[in-house]
Amino acid sequence: MSKRVKPRTPRGFGEYLPQDQILFNKMFETIRSTYERFGFTPIETPAVELTEVLLAKGGGETDKQVYSLAKEGEQLSLHFDLTVPLARYVSEHYDKLSFPFRRYQMQKVWRGERSQAGRFREFYQCDIDVIGSENLLVDAEIPSVIYNVFLALGLPDFTIKVNNRKILNGYFEYLGLSEVTKSVLTAIDKLEKQGKCAVFKDLQSLGITESTIEKVLEFTSLKGADNDILAALKDLEVQNKSFKDGVQELSDLCHYISLFGVPETNYEIDLAIARGLDYYTATVYETVLNEYPGIGSVCSGGRYDNLASFYTDKKLPGVGISIGLSRLFFKLREAEIIKPERATPSRVLIATLSSDFLPNALAIAKQLRERGINTEVSFETGKIGKQMKYANKLNIPFVFILGEEEVKSSRISAKRMASGEQVKVTFDEAIEFMDR
Amino acid sequence: MSKRVKPRTPRGFGEYLPQDQILFNKMFETIRSTYERFGFTPIETPAVELTEVLLAKGGGETDKQVYSLAKEGEQLSLHFDLTVPLARYVSEHYDKLSFPFRRYQMQKVWRGERSQAGRFREFYQCDIDVIGSENLLVDAEIPSVIYNVFLALGLPDFTIKVNNRKILNGYFEYLGLSEVTKSVLTAIDKLEKQGKCAVFKDLQSLGITESTIEKVLEFTSLKGADNDILAALKDLEVQNKSFKDGVQELSDLCHYISLFGVPETNYEIDLAIARGLDYYTATVYETVLNEYPGIGSVCSGGRYDNLASFYTDKKLPGVGISIGLSRLFFKLREAEIIKPERATPSRVLIATLSSDFLPNALAIAKQLRERGINTEVSFETGKIGKQMKYANKLNIPFVFILGEEEVKSSRISAKRMASGEQVKVTFDEAIEFMDR
CA nearest B45: which of B112, B134, B115, B129? Predict the structure, then answer.
């Protein structure tokens, strides 16, 4: 073969070595099973949508990032999130679904944005949404799902921050900023990343007076235990319906969240949570890992009035959140909060001192697999050094060795690779040895 | 909203309703866990590859089916199988992998082919490959993995058909057909679908004499128990090295396959298995469901001399198979061999006769979830008819009802929806009731 192509992935498109893939899959599976534990039902939509369907809303920043396909015929594009496909799915299959429709969806999405460390052009989103209910209990259940997910992921030190867009909208209206509400929300959204100074300038450029800006910044700096903040909000005596509705909803929400079993240490009100670029209309959520604030929000979402107005005249209110798993994984790995263990699902490698013992090895493998133990049989029969080296390299926890003596006496030499401890035992004893 | 877009998926791109998605996910998970049981390690490559990498081999039918992306910058395309990405992955990460490299990969692939029932433009492939070993034991292990997969899928009545390309190549060489071997293989591949007449004409058009064609057709009609076929092959006394090597390999393979525990009823030699369009060089496999031959091969593959000659000078021999899961699922559903059970992962819905009992419902849900039972709490508190209707529609197997009496006496009214049987019991008794 004379002409070779350099094997490489495109910029912004990553993949993992096996040991990291196993770690990633474990996180994926933990999220999935927690979603199912709460009765969310799986759906999966095609990676590809009709471009006119995907961009029906149009005008957003995401439009420019869409990957379109070059083939002739129908104009197709890769989805850039899972919310637009959900809206299309629910509209298309409306008559065949039951409401409230509780769905989870964990798929790759694609965005042709400038690639940088931790920002990918292909990444996983793990979404849940409940469609077709205006019940505030649904808003309150979401934090309890988030709470259980992050607990199950072994990341117990997090804070779910909640707010209500009605409060922000109402307060800005009260300050006479109705006409620039959207721009103010977008500015507020940058508080965490860019700090007060930058936001101050942004707000100034909107023609807002300094004293009003001070009020906005003071207001959005309110965060903490729900009772304190709710009391402070009531003290403000803002005469605005949206504001009052929002405060009432947020008050009820916090009451319910604790009813759902989320400890007070794991959630708080934060009036700076705006989710400015999104379509939320009431409750909004963000989640931060307390020890790693630099990662930013690892799980965000909120309530919307109407999911699918571009596709159907059915009104579809709902609430949902999304975990950006690829980014979360990248950041956790980078900070060495999680580490890979081994490069294979195998718990046992069966090694043989001669090919004569292969039938015995295969019989033992069959028994192990029937007990749900992932097992690999080495076919490098006889070459014991090579077999042990292979087990070491993949970090397989146990090697079962079969030689003449073992086979004659129906025993197994079982070796715990981490400690080097080795015992010559029966099959049942070998199982016990592994569990010890 | 005045301008609406009709919500629909593009032609050839399918999706499932929740009840079918759950069924599909179950099959997916069964295949995945069986692959892991045999120590195959997961990898996942980007959906998108550099076009020059993807089409390095070039010239195939698949080239025309590739979906390229329209964005400026690097030329990108969606992968059309998982073998080319595997070759790229192994070449790129060669120094970081351990060999033999046993990997599984279960991802969507995309092909812009003419769409028809059961043929999709987006579909799942579930592949395993072992790279870096010329050991025939590896060839023999593959059928035992297939055997365990189809058993676990609840489809025990299947036949794994094996052959060896060296036998076909050698026999055609012996008949003086060396120069048209590839075309003959392609023709042979159509035997199952188009019958002998069509293949006869194909071979005639290659300029092959009638008597030789008769020999080819007679030869490739040999199939059945390994000993009979192997004896028949030896009787032919074909003086050709490739032929003899192939017969010896096939003979050893069959011996090993039975050693790996695959019953004789589940595999056979079939000399018509050619896998003509592929890059196989020795062992080839196809798998048919005996009761549904019309589905065609549900799991195919084989051994190749060198996986990645387009990317690396490292020689990478290997063997692998692929299950076309989307097509298999479609066919099994169409034939009603599999049927969906329910439209939610929830085993229990907790219904309440008043919102006062919601705290009790949440406490019970927590306990159920801690025991690994997927549980949904209805927030339609009080509206018992609505709650039961919802459970019925989703086919949730159990409803736990909490009214005043239940809460006062720390009991649950547990209803088995299929039979209508209802008991008023403690939490532990309710768990027992469910397991009964």
Answer: B129
Instruction: Please name the amino acid found at residue A32.
Output: R
Average the pLDDT over A97-107 and give the result.
97
Q: What average pLDDT does this structure show over A22-34?
A: 98
Contact between B102 and A369 using a beta-carbon 8 Å cutoff: no
**Interface contact A16-B76, CB threshold 8 A:** no
Nearest CA in chain A to B25: A42
DSSP-derived 3-state class of residue A82:
coil
**Chain B residue with Cα closest to A18:** B43
Q: Is residue B215 a contact partner of residue B260, using CB atoms and an 8 Å limit?
A: no
Strand partners, A72: none
Q: How far is CA A226 from CA A253, A287, A296, B150, in A?
A: 10, 16, 22, 55
Interacting residues of A306 by C-beta distance below 8 A, sequence separation 6+: A315, A316, A317
What pLDDT score was predicted for residue A1? 46
| Model confidence at B114: pLDDT above 60 | yes
Set of chain A residues whose Cβ sits within 8 Å of the Cβ of B45: 9, 15
Neighbours of B236 (CB within 10 A): 14
The conformation of residue A305, written as its DSSP 8-state character, comes to S
pLDDT of residue A116: 66
The DSSP element (H or E) to which A134 belongs, if any, is none
pLDDT digits (tens, 9 = 90+) for A160-179: 999 999 999 999 999 999 89
The ipTM estimated for the assembled molecules is: 0.95
B69–A36 C-beta distance less than 8 A: no
CA dihedral A222, A224, A230, A236 (to 10 degrees): -20
Q: Which of A11, A13, A66, A83 to mutate to test the interface with B (most CBs of B within 10 A)?
A: A13
Q: Cβ A15–B89 below 8 Å, yes or no?
A: yes
Q: What is the mean pLDDT of residues B125-147?
A: 97
Contacts for A213-222: CB closer than 8 Å, 24+ residues apart: A215/A175, A216/A172, A216/A175, A216/A177, A216/A184, A216/A188, A219/A171, A219/A271, A220/A168, A220/A188, A220/A191, A220/A271, A220/A272, A220/A274, A221/A271, A221/A272, A222/A269, A222/A270, A222/A271
Q: What is the pLDDT at residue B113?
A: 77
Average pLDDT over residues A195-204: 92
Specify the DSSP element, H or E, that contains A238. none
| CB within 8 Å: B15 and A344 | no
Cα of B428 vs its chain's centroid, Å: 40
Residue B287 gets which letter from DSSP? Answer: E
The partner residues of A267 in beta bridges, in order of sequence, read A160
How far is Cα A300 from Cα A279, in angstroms, rounded to an integer? 13
- Within 8 A of A309 by CB-CB distance, chain B residues are 1
> Over the stretch B182-211, which tens digit does the pLDDT of each residue have?
899 889 888 888 889 999 999 999 999 999
CB-CB neighbors (< 8 A) of A100 in chain B: 379
Q: How many CA atoms lie within 13 A of A356 on its CB side?
A: 8
Confirm if B246 and B170 have CB atoms less than 8 A apart: yes
**Best of A6, A27, A72, A74 to mutate (most B CBs within 10 Å, chain B):** A6
Q: What percentage of chain A carries pLDDT values higher than 70?
A: 97
Which of B98, B41, B39 shows the shortest CA–CA distance to A390?
A: B98
User: pLDDT tens-digit profile of B5-16?
Assistant: 999 999 999 999
* pLDDT for the residue numbered B115: 60
Question: Which residue of chain B has the CA closest to A96?
Answer: B17
Look-up of token digits 């396909």? A69
The residue among B64, B121, B130, B137 with the most chain A CBs within 10 A of its CB, best to mutate, is B137
The C-alpha atoms of residue A110 and residue A76 are separated, in whole angstroms, by 13
